[in-house]
Design brief:
Helices cover 25% and strands 24% of the residues. The protein has 10 helices and 19 strands.
Length: 346
């Protein structure tokens, strides 16, 4: 535990600590180089353009794609999030999502970079709605980054185990559906806020929409909002021409949030990260494969996919990936995979 002498007294006994105000630690830090670290070959200094992480997503060929995300897009995201943060005083963020889901980076680092508290439940608590609600209450959780289906389950299960009245929910990972249980929960606590974030793994958060304070003013289908800081969004036809407001087109993203591409997949990177005809020479934009339209008020509506990709419980799934796996079985000649929704939301 990185600490100082005063704080270490509050820790349980037996916790290994590194005290930053200890004389020997201060001397050791002062003796370290002051220049930026270098890469693994010790030839070039690391910069914000170096990778922060690689996260794999599904691929239509059956081979997952490793998205290489540099540090700079994350710095832009965290700066934007801190800039629009209306919370006053201390906040506690639940680290709910899996580390293989890019939202976890926003949960962890946007919290630690702004001096908030990160509360981490066990996997057993995460998987039980009632236990998770009790854990949230015990830890005074004020901020959630969760997909729509988890939000719906928590609001549906809310009874004596109430969520914080000033709770702020940042929904991401799938299309937001405003169920009756979500509306009841937020109407019961008018201070609560619901924010709808949109963005594929290749760009993290792209747009944001804050739902009105009054639940009776919520739209039937919430939009995905406007671009965040230093991000450009285009709705284009198949000739890369901008479509008029109200018309459907494919969503392209440019600006500070783009990943470098796919790890060791130059052909696939070139297919999805294309030249930006609206930007500076050499700039790129990401072809999302999502359909959208501009509303008259300058807000974006999400209209689904231009291809077969589906989202199930926040997971991005390529039916073609499953088909490819099935056709590798010795007795399967052909395969077709569809997502069925016999009951809405299931």
């Amino acid at each position: 535990m990185i600490s100082d002498a005063a704080t270490a007294q509050l820790l349980p006994p037996g916790v290994p600590t590194l005290l930053l105000d200890a004389t020997d630690v201060g001397q050791a830090i002062a003796a370290r180089p002051t220049a930026n670290p270098t890469d693994s070959h010790r030839t070039r200094p690391l910069t914000p353009l170096n990778p922060a992480y690689v996260i794999y997503t599904s691929g239509s060929t059956g081979r997952p794609k490793g998205v290489v995300m540099p540090v700079a897009p994350l710095l832009n995201l965290f700066s934007w999030h801190a800039g629009i943060d209306e919370s006053a005083g201390a906040s506690t963020v639940a680290q709910f999502t899996s580390l293989s889901f890019d939202v976890s980076a926003q949960e962890i680092f946007s919290t630690l970079c702004t001096g908030k508290t990160l509360a981490i439940p066990t996997n057993e608590i995460r998987s039980n709605t009632s236990d998770f609600l009790k854990w949230c209450k015990k830890n005074s959780v004020t901020d959630f980054f969760i997909p729509n289906i988890v939000l719906d389950l928590l609001c549906e299960s809310e009874s004596e185990d109430r969520l914080d009245d000033s709770l702020r929910v940042f929904q991401a990972g799938e299309a937001l559906q405003l169920s009756a249980s979500v509306a009841r929960s937020f109407a019961r606590s008018p201070q609560r806020r619901l924010h709808n974030h949109y963005g594929p793994t290749e760009t993290h958060v792209v747009t944001a929409y804050d739902l009105p304070d009054a639940v009776n003013e919520w739209p039937a289908v919430p939009p995905i909002g406007r671009p965040i800081w230093n991000t450009q969004v285009y709705v284009l036809d198949d000739q890369l021409q901008a479509v008029p407001a109200g018309a459907s087109g494919e969503l392209y993203v440019a600006g500070a949030g783009l990943a470098r591409g796919y790890l060791n997949r130059p052909g696939l990177s070139a297919d999805r990260f294309v030249a930006n005809p609206f930007g500076a020479p050499g700039s790129r934009m990401y072809r999302t494969g999502d359909l959208a339209r501009w509303r008259a008020d300058g807000v974006l509506d999400f209209l689904g996919r231009a291809d077969q990709q589906v989202k199930i419980r926040g997971f991005r799934i390529e039916p073609g990936e499953i088909e490819a796996a099935l056709t590798r079985l010795p007795h399967v000649a052909q395969a077709a995979v569809i997502a069925r929704e016999d009951t809405p939301g299931h």
